[in-house]
Amino acid sequence: MMKTLFSKNMMKNIFCQGYLWLLLLLLYSPIFIIVIFSFTEAKVMGNWTGFSLQLYKNLFVEGTHHSLTAALINTVTIALITATVSTLFGTLTAIGIHNLRNRKARLAITFVNNIPILNGDIIIGISLFLLFITLDIPQGYTTVVLSHITFCLPYVILSVMPRLKQMNPNLYEAALDLGASPIQALRKVIIPEILPGMISGFMLAITMSIDDFAVTIFTIGNEGLETLSTFIYADARKGGLTPELRPLSTIIFVLVLVMLVIINRRSDKNKKK
C-alpha cells in the first residue's frame, strides 16, 4: 500500500515537473533563438554564418538605421512619460479610493477602473481614436502618450491598492497627532509604505507601453511617428525583419531581466526587515 502511494506521488511529481519544463521551453525558446542569432551577420534568422558582433555595432552607428533608432527613442520616451504620469496619478487615485468612506462608491469606482483591463486593446484603441477625432485633436506623439496613460493607469491603481490595504490605518493619524502636516504625513509615512507597489506599477506601465501595438496603431496618426511595435509591423509587411532587431530585442530582454532581479531582491530584503 505504501509502495503504491509512493509511486503515485513520484509519478505526479515527475508529471508536474515535466509539464513545468515544457511550458518554460515553449515560452523562452523563441527568446533564446533570437539571442543566439543576434551574434551572427546573417540577414535571415536560422542561417548561422559565424560569430559576429556586427549587428550590435550597426545599432550604435549613426545614420545606419535612422528609422529604427527614431522608433526606439520614441518608444522609450513614451514609456517613461507614461509610467511616470500613470504612477503619480494612479497612486493618488488609489489613496483616494482607499479613503472613501462610502463602500458603494468605492466599489463603483473600482468597477469603473477595471473596465479598461477587461476590454480588449482593439476596443480601447478604436474608442480613443473616435474620441480624438470627435474632439478634433491632432493625432501624433501627444495622443499616443495620452492613450498609453489611459490603459496603464488602472494597472498602477491595482498594484498600489493591496499595499494600502496592508498598511496600518493608524500610522497616518499618528503622524498628524505628532504635528505633521497632511503633505508631510503622505510623503514620510504613506509613500514609504506603498513604495513597493508604486515600483511594481511603474515597471508594469513601462512594460505595457513598450509592448503595446493595437492602441498605438489607432492613435499614432499620419505624421510619420513610429514606435518599435509599429516599425516591426511595417517591416514585417515588406516581407522580412531588419536584422538589427535581433540584437535590439536581446538588449531589451537583458535590461528587463536585470531590473526584475533587482526589484525581487529589494522586495526580499524588505520582507526580511
Summarize the structure.
This protein has a domain at 66-241: Orthogonal Bundle (MetI-like fold), CATH 1.10.3720.10. It is built from eleven helices and no strands. It has helices spanning 2-37, 54-59, 66-98, 103-118, 121-134, 141-166, 170-177, 182-211, 214-219, 228-237, 245-272.
Write up this protein:
It is a single chain. This protein is mostly helical. The chain is built from eleven helices and no strands. Helix 1 packs across helix 11, helix 4 packs across helix 6 and helix 7 packs across helix 8. It starts with a helix and ends with a helix.
Can you name the CATH architecture of one domain? Orthogonal Bundle
* Averaged pLDDT: 82
Which fold name corresponds to the CATH topology of one domain? MetI-like fold
Largest sheet: none
Shape: globular
How would you classify the helix and strand content by structural class? mainly alpha
